[in-house]
Amino acid sequence: ALPRLADGEPITRVALDLGYDSVPAFITMFKRMLGTSPRGYMRGARDTSEGTRQTAGPVRSENVAR
C-alpha cells in the first residue's frame, strides 16, 4: 500500500484492492500501524519527493529504542 499511496493512488482504490470492506477500516489500521493517516503519509511522501524531510513513514526496527 505504501508505494501506491506515495505515487498518489486514491486511498479508496488502495483500500478496496487490499480487500478492506470499507475505507474507514483501512484508515484505522493504517493509523494504528504507522501513527498517521494515509493522507498524512501521502503528504509526507510528496514532501520527500520535493526534497524536504519526510514527516511520516514506516518505522524501521533498528531505529526503535528498546
Describe the fold and architecture.
It is a single chain. With 66 residues, the protein is mainly alpha-helical. It has a single domain (2-51), classed as Arc Repressor Mutant, subunit A (Orthogonal Bundle). 55% of the residues lie in helices and 0% in strands. The protein is built from four helices and no strands. The chain has helices at 2-6, 11-17, 23-34, 38-49. The longest helix has 12 residues, at 23-34. The chain is globular, with a radius of gyration of 12 Å. The mean pLDDT is 83.
Summarize the structure.
55% of the residues lie in helices and 0% in strands.
Keywords for this entry:
single chain, 66 residues, mainly alpha, Arc Repressor Mutant, subunit A, 0% strand, globular
- Major pleated sheet: none
Question: Whole-number radius of gyration?
Answer: 12 Å
Listing every helix as H and every strand as E from the N terminus to the C terminus, the arrangement reads HHHH
Distance between the amino and carboxyl termini? 28 Å
Assign the CATH architecture: Orthogonal Bundle
Percent of residues in β-strands: under 5%
Q: How many separate structural domains? A: 1
Shape estimate:
globular
Helix content: 40-55%
* Number of E-state strands: 0
Assigned CATH class: Mainly Alpha
Mean pLDDT, all residues: 83
Strand-helix topology:
Blueprint: H1 2-6, H2 11-17, H3 23-34, H4 38-49
